[in-house]
Every structure is written in C-alpha cells, then in structure tokens.
Design goal:
heterodimer, A: 173 residues, alpha+beta, Alpha-D-Glucose-1,6-Bisphosphate, Chain A, domain 4, 4 helices, B: 121 residues, mainly alpha, Arc Repressor Mutant, subunit A, 5 helices
Chain lengths: 173, 121
C-alpha cells in the first residue's frame, strides 16, 4: 500500500516528493541549490524559520516561535487561525542535533505525534533534504490520514446521525 | 459536481465517525473477514454488524462478496484513494514551505557572498 505524490511540472522549482514508506512512516525529499549549512541555518534560527514555515495560502499566522536547538532542548510554535478563537500550539523536544547535518524532534501536541527526522546531505554545493515522520504505530498514521483528531470528531458524529436518519428514510432495506 | 464530491466526502467521514466501524476497518487492514466473525469480535448481532457494513460499503470503504453462504468483507477502493489524497495534500504543504525556504536561503547565499568578498579585501 504505497501512495505517492509528486510535484507538477514547474521547471523553476526543485521537486518535492512525499511517499508512505511503511505502515508507520512518511518520507519527503527536496533538493536545495545551496550548501547544507545555509539550509540548516534557515531551519534553526527562529527569525528565519518564521519566514518560511507558514504557507501563505493557509491563512494561518505564526504568533511566536521559540527554538532551543540542542539535544534535549525544546521548541514551541503558536499559530492563530482566522476561524478559531484560541491560538494553536505545536511543541516538542529535540532528540538529536548535528550541526548542518541532522535534526530529530518530537511532536508532543498529540499522544500519537510522530518523531520527525530531517537530514541535510550536501553534494557539489547542493543539499538533499530528507524528512521522515515516523508515527508510534500504524494506527497513529492511519488516524492522521483520516484526520480523526478530537476537534473534528464532534462534527463527524453529527454527520453520522444525519447519515443514519437519511439512510433510514431512503435506499434499499 | 462539487456537490457530489462533497456528499462523497461526508459519507466517507460519517462512516469513519463510529468506533465500531473504525475497529472493523482496522480489522480488515489486517485480514479479510466474514460478517459473522466481525459480529462475534465486536460482540454484536449479525443484523447490527450488517448495518455497520452497509454504511462502510456505501462509503466504498469496504466491499463485500458472497462466497457460498458467507459474506466476505474486505477494504474497498476509497481507503486507497483517501490515502493518496492525504499524501498529495501533505506533499503540497511541504512543497509550498520549501519554495518559501528557497527564498530565505537565496538571501542567505547572497549575504554570504557579499561578506566573503568583504573579508578577502
């Protein structure tokens, strides 16, 4: 069961690919036309990180970004979304930090959060970035795919009731 | 067209909103099973389980096939479609981030070149 996505033909950009590698893991790759220390710097200095992490199309605003990039250090990102009143926080700890080569961190906002590993491999002045998100279980990744997090389940229950009512009124017995 | 997609989406997510049906899908991810076996495992009547399977079948999350006197259940085409759609939206998010990261890195690159020239003087 391997699902894969690849970017459209956009000749000016390097391609981003994402692939489910196993029951628990999703791997994303991207090449940058720059040496690894610059890619690493843009990832680990909060004022630079804040410039690229939040996609403009999402409508989300990054309120704050703290990164203590060392083994055991923590990070915390807070976002505001126009549709939700309270800010949303993402946080965790760095499990491994190797300058210009590797970052590993936890995602602790949910019990089923993945461990993210990013490696920066430099070759001929370019850098291949490989990012792995490893979930604690197959079920945790399936849950991410289904988007069955707490905030949504109430909506699903309402939809379910609607479906049952509709199903009872129509369709084959 | 948009509406029919929306309806499909609703049906699919509604099907997933019930813990028994999620359990059934998990079970079927491991192996195909008959309605009888599923009913026993979830301690339900055959009729009760049949209703859940109907909802999952409507959402194309499960397909069933009658083999002799037994109705076999297995994962349907929607599960794979859903996963492919999720991977694609995940990839798009990261592609957008990385394109923005390119811009940040270009600035760093130019700055480094400038500073390098200064140092050599």
């Amino acid at each position: 069961m391997v699902a894969r996505g690849e970017s459209e033909s956009d000749s000016t950009r390097n391609r981003t690919t994402s692939e489910r590698r196993s029951e628990r893991e999703v791997v994303t790759t991207r090449t940058f036309d720059a040496p690894a220390h610059l890619v690493f710097e843009a990832w680990t200095r909060p004022e630079l990180f804040a410039q690229w992490w939040v996609p403009k199309s999402s409508g989300v605003v990054l309120l704050s970004c703290e990164q203590d990039v060392r083994v055991g250090g923590s990070y915390r990102l807070e976002f505001a979304h126009p549709e939700t009143g309270t800010p949303i926080a993402f946080f965790g700890r760095y499990l491994d930090v190797v300058s210009n080569a590797r970052l590993v961190w936890t995602n602790e906002e949910s019990e089923d959060g993945a461990v993210t590993t990013v490696s920066f491999e430099e070759s001929g002045g370019r850098t291949l970035l490989v990012m792995s998100e490893l979930y604690p279980s197959k079920q945790a990744l399936e849950a991410a795919i289904e988007g069955m997090d707490g905030a949504m389940s109430e909506t699903f229950e309402q939809l379910d009731e609607f479906l049952v009512v509709r199903g009872a009124g129509a369709g084959p017995a | 067209m948009v509406q029919s997609y929306q309806t499909r989406f609703d049906v699919s997510f509604a099907a997933l909103s019930d813990p028994v049906r999620r359990g059934v899908l998990e079970q079927l991810m491991r192996a195909d099973a008959s309605i009888t076996v599923l009913a026993e495992r979830f301690r339900m009547t055959l009729t009760g389980m049949r209703k859940h399977i109907d909802v999952l079948e409507q959402a194309e999350l499960v397909t069933t096939e009658k083999v002799g006197r037994v109705r076999r259940c297995r994962l349907g085409p929607r599960r794979l479609e859903e996963e492919a759609a999720w991977i694609e939206s995940y990839r798009r998010l990261w592609a957008e981030r990385f394109d923005a990261l390119d811009t940040v890195i270009e600035t760093l690159k130019r700055k480094e070149k400038r500073d390098g020239r200064k140092r050599r003087k």
